[in-house]
Amino acid sequence: MNAPLPAPAPAAAPADLVSRRVAGHSLEAPFYVSDEFFRLDIEAVFARSWIFAAAEAELPEPGDYITVDIGPYSVIAVRDDDENVRAFHNVCRHRGARILNDERGSVGNIVCGYHHWTYGVDGTLLHAESQAPGFDPSCFGLRAVHARTVAGLVFLCLAPEPPADFDEFASTVEPYLAPHNLPRAKVAAQTDLVEHANWKLTMENNRECYHCAGHPELQRCYFPLYNFTEDEVPPALRTTFARFRRADAEARATYESLGLPYAAVEELDTRPTGFRIEREPLDMAGESFTYDGTAAVKRLLADFPTARLGHLGLHLQPNAWFHVAADHAVLFSVVPLAADRTLVRTTWLVHADAEEGTDYDLDTLTGVWATTNEQDAVFVARAQRGIGSPAYVPGPYSPTESQVEDFVNWYVSRLKAHLETDVTAERKAERKADRTAELEER
């Protein structure tokens, strides 16, 4: 007879749940199902970290913009007249109206549709009708949001003081990404999928291949050996592992001959801007994420002498992962919508001059990852439903789920830092109130 499940732990405050987190195990249910944790995740993680927002290819010309919604925040990312990407809070400085209401578009100036306050694409206030004498437009420009671009990828940070390690992250990953010429690519396709699960389940699912038997299409071209050591490879994957060893030796020789960096750099839970990057082979033809591994796009992203370059994989905490092959790139971003709903946006980039129908077939280009996304949506929805049961008790991660542990460690450390900052601020406020009361008594 099976032993009875332990009784669910009593309700606890977020700080208590964070402090009692058991390493090597999944999180307790409130982390995934409670609205309180959803709000905390926005405040402590998404409003304080560098977030992947878009490809530069989504903003090809001055005046092109996208809007990004993160919890209660809305941000405009726009290409300015000097062709730099800038970002601003999507809030009019007059009476707070939402300014741009479309997901994307192009503007000459940024005009609020309520009272027509008009801003330049550099955020300066250009026109505000019928103001009092002495009104100074320079005091009412759009509130800026930190924006950085790295090798064609756009990152935003909502915090007044963003994590200071971004330069180190950028200098590490840019040499890997730069050969693929992503700033000069174009968007071939973009899809939005709402997963009925907490955003952390979406990210955890991405950080392991323990479930990859559920992705037969992906496994045709992608070696499903994520985090396996040679001793841990199960019997069913021994033939695949032997094939991987041969492909890996060939790929390393190619990378070295072309001067392409490929070694893994893994700092997933050791810094505020946690990341992992590595170049490695693909299976079958070894060229791309297609059903037979051949290139999906005839026109490669850059002037590579071969399409057989495997893929460059980049993981970024808290909300993104990327796969870049010789012929195209696939970018994934995650945005929390509610405690149990998450937006997964997938963007396919190809060479700017590649033509659909001539250089690539859209279904071939998107097929593997579109199918994989749908399968993952089913998996994480099942996880969400199970965690919502009173019978759920956190379970142990397998050794191949080490990057899930890294993600959860990183996430918990962000919450701890935020909660400790709040406690410190609260204590300072209490001491100030005590001193004020003492002075008043005197």
Automatic annotation (TrEMBL):
This is Aromatic ring-hydroxylating dioxygenase subunit alpha. Residues 51-156 form the Rieske domain. The lineage of its organism: Bacteria, Bacillati, Actinomycetota, Actinomycetes, Kitasatosporales. GO terms for molecular function: 2 iron, 2 sulfur cluster binding; dioxygenase activity; iron ion binding; monooxygenase activity; oxidoreductase activity, acting on paired donors, with incorporation or reduction of molecular oxygen. It comes from the Bacteria. InterPro entries: Rieske_2Fe-2S, Rieske_2Fe-2S_sf, Ring_hydroxy_dOase_asu_C_dom, Rng_hydr_dOase-A. Its cofactor is Fe cation. Gene3D superfamilies: Naphthalene 1,2-dioxygenase Alpha Subunit, Chain A, domain 1, Rieske [2Fe-2S] iron-sulphur domain. Pfam families: Rieske (PF00355), Ring_hydroxyl_A (PF00848). Keywords: 2Fe-2S, Dioxygenase, Iron, Iron-sulfur, Metal-binding, Oxidoreductase.
